[in-house]
Amino acid sequence: MNLTPHFHLVSFDGVFACAEEGEQPRFYPLRPPDPRDVAAVASRVAERVAALLEKRDGAEDPEEPAMAVLYGASITGRLATGTNAGQRVTTSGEFQEETFERHGSRCAMVTGFSVHAGVSIRAEDRKGLERLLRYAARPPVAEDRLAQLPDGRLSYRLKTPWRNGTTHVIFDPLEFVARLAVLVPAPRVNLIRFHGLLGPAAKWRAAIVPASPENEPASEACECEDGGGKKKRGRNYSWASLMARVFEVDVLKCPGCNGRLKILAAIHPPVNTRKILECMGLPSRSPPVARAASAVSESTFEEF
């Protein structure tokens, strides 16, 4: 739950090039990085980030002083609100600073900046690549590891216990909300970026990105008919396919007869939607919004 800025980068282990103009791009593999290469990347990142922070020193946004306090507390692992502000976060064991552990020869740390380049996926391992991309795009908080204690506090279970035996961190509700606020991305900032040949406007993208296999199930992709009446895969997955892949829920399965549902029409005007719902005896208005139940007094929010 601490603010730990880091990046997941998935890249080719080689380059694409054309021997002559008009030829199909060919892939040329590169040698695996050695420890010196990884250390050089870590040093370059440390120097550039330090220079960037020096330029922005004192350039704090005066319109968001509260967020600046929350950022600082989250980075240092301390509480930002309440009577215990400035103290360490409560855990189920004695807290100690965690140190960087090497998990192989392709790891390096320079002045607090660590680089880990020990993961590689074979070209034919599509399932492994999907698992890696899912890991890189995972959210910062896992809801299934969050639980409420009898006294109202929230307990968050660590994915991997610390070396000192700590397995959970404990927050007051207000402090937990403060930690979540810090993890919310800034407005209009893309969290996933594509560079080089994987960029949407890359000249060679159509020649590099593999086409879908012809034996791919029709239920997993959008389909359309070309001029010859044959079906071909569209660029994007359908909404139902995405729901099945991400949440493992078949939204087109009838809960009554287990048959297949079919979308007949999409009705957007609220007037028409309300008439249809009322004709079917279903509620046509959203339920009233109740006030949020909270044990935190208004004076606490004012102080916060």
Can you walk through the features of this model?
By secondary structure, this protein is an alpha+beta fold. It folds into 2 domains: 14-183, no CATH class; 218-279, no CATH class. The chain is built from 8 helices and 10 strands. A 4-stranded antiparallel β-sheet has the order 3-8-7-6. Strands 1-2 form a two-stranded antiparallel sheet. Strands 4-5 form a two-stranded antiparallel sheet. A hairpin with a 5-residue loop joins strand 9 (223-225) and strand 10. Helix 2 (65-76) crosses helix 4. The longest helix is centred in the first third of the chain and has 21 residues, at 35-55. It is extended. The two termini are 19 Å apart. 6% of the residues are buried.
What would you say about this model in short?
28% of the residues lie in helices and 12% in strands.
List key phrases describing it.
304 residues, alpha+beta, 4-stranded antiparallel β-sheet
Order of helices and strands: EEHHEEEHEEEHHEEHHH
- Beta-strand share of residues: 5-15%
Q: What's the total helix number?
A: 8
Total separate domains: 2
User: What oligomeric assembly is this protein in?
Assistant: single chain
The helix/strand class is alpha+beta
